[in-house]
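Annex B, item 7. Sequence and structure tokens for protein A, then protein B.
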Amino acid sequence: MDDAASRPVLDYWCELQCPDCHKAQHDLDVLRERYGERLEIRLRHFPLEKHKHAYAAAQAAEEAYEQGKGDEFAAAVLERHSELASRGEALLLDVARELGLDAEEFETALIDGRHLLMVDADQAEGKAIGVTGTPTYVIAGRRLDGGKSQEGLREQIEEIADGLLEGGRN
């Protein structure tokens, strides 16, 4: 387990109703493909008030992680971010069903609020480090804001990750 403890971590603050986060999925897929298990990529929640269903989507993503398909769920919801705006929780439950997850448990989780603390903690941590929009990436203590432009961010992340992996330390 020593390898897992020393691998670099890329946190990305994301909002599942955000068109820019949808665009960022390609870069995240490329990073997952390139680094595999050598780079831990963690979704962090930063629901924005301007998006009515973002908070519920963040809670639903946490339920998906609990059921073993969090990354797949987040990617599927981001693919349909504009549909989320109009359909809300019904879309979240449809995506859960499509991925073979327990949609009834999703519904219960959204009602009982079991994932509220996780979403709130992510958002509070994001605010504390200066996150103001999504997507925002943090690797090795460096914050990279993708809300204005994704241009060049993946390359910056790769450069930092390569340096960390070559140095053997996070």
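Protein B:
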Amino acid sequence: MAELFSVPVTVRGYETDVQGHLNQSVYLQYAEHARWSLLHAAGISQTELMGKGVGPVVLETNIRYLRELRAGDDVEVTCGFAWGDGKTFRVEQTIRRTDGTVSAELTSVGGLLDLKERRLVADPREYFRALATDPPRFGL
């Protein structure tokens, strides 16, 4: 896996639940934000993906909640791709407070969907490698 990419996020009050904790669904939004930020940093835009007739899909996500987050907490959300030999790849992510406390760990299985055929492409690495201006960000 490549060196982890990260983005800073500050927990906003409207993202919290009645107990003052970050709502569980927002962890997924933070993870999605980090994934798209990594694509952008590597030089891949949504427009380019659509132009190639593909779009990223999440097939499965596992979240392990470890420590609560509250409004005003500053966190970093990491993102790293791990490639196998098939049609899918893993995305490993951590949401960590700036003091180093890990709040959540997320592991997703993803792929690239051929938008016309509605099937996963055979080798998503090739698309990422061809589109990215900085493929090493994906460990390629």
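Comment on protein B: The two ends are 9 Å apart (CA to CA).
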